[in-house]
Fold this protein.
Amino acid sequence: MDDVKNLTYHEEMIGFLIKKTFFDLWDNMMRIVLLNLGFIVSLAVPVFLPGVIPIPVLSVAALAAGVLWCCVYLSAAAISLKAVSDYGIFGFADFWANLKAGWPAGIALGTISIFLFVMAGIIIPFYLGMGSIAGLVLAAIIFWTLLLALLSFQFFLAIRARLDTKLKKICRKCFIIFFDNPAFAFFSLLYALVTLVLSLILSVLLPRLGGIFLFFAFFIPGPAGALLFLDEALRLRLLKYDWLEASPQTEGEPMNRGAGPSAPAAHPSKRRGIPWDAILIEEREKTGNRSLRNFIFPWKD
């Protein structure tokens, strides 16, 4: 019965997360579009620039520099979108300030991404090409390591925006969040990937409709939409740690949460009865409910 109760609470949290993300995406659609437009322009650097450089070393350097710049841009976008998750807004001046503040995290994430890409694109095929049991085992180990890294580092920019600015602590908290919430991390990654796939589908369908729909091709929900969801996910998940800190301590269960009021620490993974219905009362009141008419004609309500 406890497992059924936990599943119900977890479903309530997931449902509210999706609802709030959609509401914030709708209310800030133009900002999301502009962020995605900037990312598409940035993405042109690593996609097209290396192909026009005839010197191989410089071409690879241009590719790496382009990837690093895209990650720096995403870091600034993630910090900006934190304001949206917190029921606020951001402007161009805010994004520029966030770009200057978030570039170290962007460079770090870019370096990690390049390393993981090399592992996936070069090292795994190399071991598979050995044609031996040892090569197969090594390739499998690297594959599961990559999956672990992907599940953990998906929260890297959201943690930088919401919890900490020190790179070592950001990496540590990425793994803490994953190991303490593995099912939630898997769902978040799946949702973010579906968001990006949906953006690609819309980029094919919307231009065929013509008119104003052409403007939104690949811009909704896009990478900014995925970043917004991950920040919303981390923000709501941190409410669990606030509740655990405020609740009576269970015997033998350490409650040291680390630095900062919202910094999670390595709590035991098996917790039962997180009352999401009660935890989300204030969030539900702030988010509210809307009719279809309110979405299309908000000024009439």
Remarks:
- Residues 2-246+256-300 form one domain.
- Residues 92-128 form the longest helix (37 residues).
